[in-house]
Amino acid sequence: MILAQLPRFHLSILARPSFSLSSSHFNFLNPKPPVTVARNLFSFASKSNLATVEPIPLPVSDSSDLDDAPVEISLDKLFIPPETDVSGDDSASLTARILKGSNIVLSKYARDAQVVQADYVKSSVKTEDCPADGLPEFALVGRSNVGKSSLLNSLVRRKRLALTSKKPGKTQCINHFRINDKWYLVDLPGYGYASAPHELKQDWNKFTKDYFLNRSTLVSVFLLVDASIPVKQIDLDYASWLGQNQVPMTMIFTKCDKRKKKKNGGKRPEENIKEFQDLIQGFFETTPPWIMTSSVTNQGRDEILLHMAQLRNYWLKH
Ligand code: GDP
């Protein structure tokens, strides 16, 4: 199965955890021409090679919180997709290939990212009941209230599509949405409902884990983590389970527009993100790809779609 072949990636923020390019660096829907294939993908990676990344543009009211110094991410902490060679890039050209607000380098597979059509297909209670047409899929999962429905709606640019998953009887299901008739977005049950009965929690756990382990068309899990609040143990547990079971995972940090100190325990989203990554580092051979998002500002929307496109196109080719 191809997914096991996707490299896993470490992230280490050497300065402070603010990692984004200004939009002038890169046109998301027109990525650069394909890069050359590297024989040894990671042979060049060393901590002395740094990509310099500009800070994320902040809302005016909060900009006083940050200085504008560039941030450096070590090369071996970037997500460099398979068949992608960055060894010939200097710091500036590599920086231009990193998706804004992420550690993800674009590959030649980043194409056909736009969502033209999105249709709800079905809700399943077992992995065996999921669509059997073999199309690649991405599963969104996260703590209840993390912003999963908002993100799903934002990705497909439909205000209420994800409401389907919130209808009574569907919240505990594996909900499939077909995109452009070519791939699926899958909405999985949220975890961490304080009020859910113990047996129900166990049951959801069982079937989502079964889905993660046995769904052969699952390209990557997208684990949503709220970046506006301090790190939660339950999210760490989830990430560590995925890591230990070698389930490919991308971390989606949500609510990155929420920058008011009083609401997030005095920490900015970037600080919560760094803390989360530091804490899960030990569970992964290399740190997974991650993207900062906001469903309010649509930050990260195009970046997620490009990342999905490159994972998907690679998966389809192999
Ligand atoms: P779900 O339970 O994971 O599906 O979460 P929802 O999408 O229903 O969102 C939960 C709450 O968080 C709602 O009040 C949303 O308006 C809010 N929310 C979701 N995404 C964002 C975001 O990116 N920024 C902010 N500020 N609020 C958000």
TrEMBL record:
The gene is LOC104769379. The lineage of its organism: Eukaryota, Viridiplantae, Streptophyta, Embryophyta, Tracheophyta. Its cofactor is Mg(2+). InterPro entries: G_ENGB_dom, GTP-bd, GTP-bd_ribosome_bio_YsxC, P-loop_NTPase. Residues 134-314 form the EngB-type G domain. Keywords: Cell cycle, Cell division, GTP-binding, Magnesium, Metal-binding, Nucleotide-binding, Septation. It comes from Camelina sativa (False flax). Gene3D superfamilies: P-loop containing nucleotide triphosphate hydrolases. This is GTP-binding protein At2g22870. Belongs to the TRAFAC class TrmE-Era-EngA-EngB-Septin-like GTPase superfamily. EngB GTPase family. CDD domains: YihA_EngB.
